[in-house]
Amino acid sequence: MINKICVVTGCRADYGLLKHLMNIIKQDSELDLQIIATGNHLSSDYGLTYQEIEQDGFTIDRKVNALDSTDTRVGISKSIGIGISGISEVLDELNPDLLIILGDRFEILAASIASLIAGIPIAHLHGGETTLGAFDESIRHAITKMSHLHFVAAEEYRKRIVQLGENPKHVYTVGGLGVDAMLHNELLTREDLEKQLGLSFNKKNLLITYHPVTLDKTQASDQFGELLAAVRNLEDTALIFTFPNADPESRVIISMLKKFAETRPNTFVYTSLGLTRYFSCINEVDGVLGNSSSGLLEVPSFKKGTINIGDRQYGRLAADSVINCGANQADIENAIDQLYSQSFQLKLATVENPYGCGGAADKIIFQIKALDTPINTKKPFFDLAF
Predict the structure, then answer these.
(1) What is the 3-state secondary structure (H, E, C) of 36-68?
(2) What domains sit in the chain, N to C, each tagged with a CATH number?
(3) pTM for the complete prediction?
């Protein structure tokens, strides 16, 4: 029987998706929740977001520093090595029955390698998805092959995991955890949000997050420069930016963003909004702009539009509220015009999120508790019939 469940979280994004699941585990008398915080969470450059975990009432069992001091490609590779070393020691101390990890970040790759070598079964959430423009694509599928239980957001993703040689009996379609996160967060009023963030919403408002496209030959600075050029002259529009994740060239984007905001009173920049304020912002703005997975996973449930720039998220299921565009000024400007068009705004009311309508976390815990035999870490490859 599984009792001790260890959840690894490496950044604000995966914690936002994991929070409700962690609460369910914490409140279950038959389960013992363990938490490892690593990666961005422990970096002052990215907001020391482990504090949000603690403010939400969780006890972090171990903090594992795993970020090299640079955001170069060499630095990211070093971070993976540091993470494997640190998390290996922590897993030996905590000795969980099951490790829960989500997604495709390099910090999560480190955790999965450490768990694999330690012989600790892995439950992987949000596998089977595709994102053409980032090395997260390969990391995600590599984690799938190291994992033993798979909880996916859509049937298409379940089929892809089976195609990778995983036993269909261990792949569960539960829906997206982002929808759960939205449904279990009480949003702030517009007035309270403005007070907490020190901003004033304008006639028009956009929430913007842009991450480096890690498999693209074009420099992150060039692509982000195109985005800034597209929004530079927007009138009567508040531009609310959040920092990118710790990927190669992320600090270049942060530097450009700070400089852009210096002389623009309509531009507001935040290292991290935190889950409640982030969702509250989505609820108040006209749409989101950038290349964050949140624009596809969560924003459609708010009946708001998403402008998805470039190919970082290419391949993921997308609602009709998502406008895909190229990473150049002209395409982004055209997409903004489309976002504000009457025809587009009218159809938002009927948009359905392909990641479901909630309940993913409950389904995950139900399946874990329903296991009647120990998880066999000797995992045979499941061959498809040819």
Answers:
(1) EEEHHHHCHHHCCCHHHHHHCCCCCCEEECCCC
(2) 4-183+356-370 (3.40.50.2000), 190-350 (3.40.50.2000)
(3) 0.91
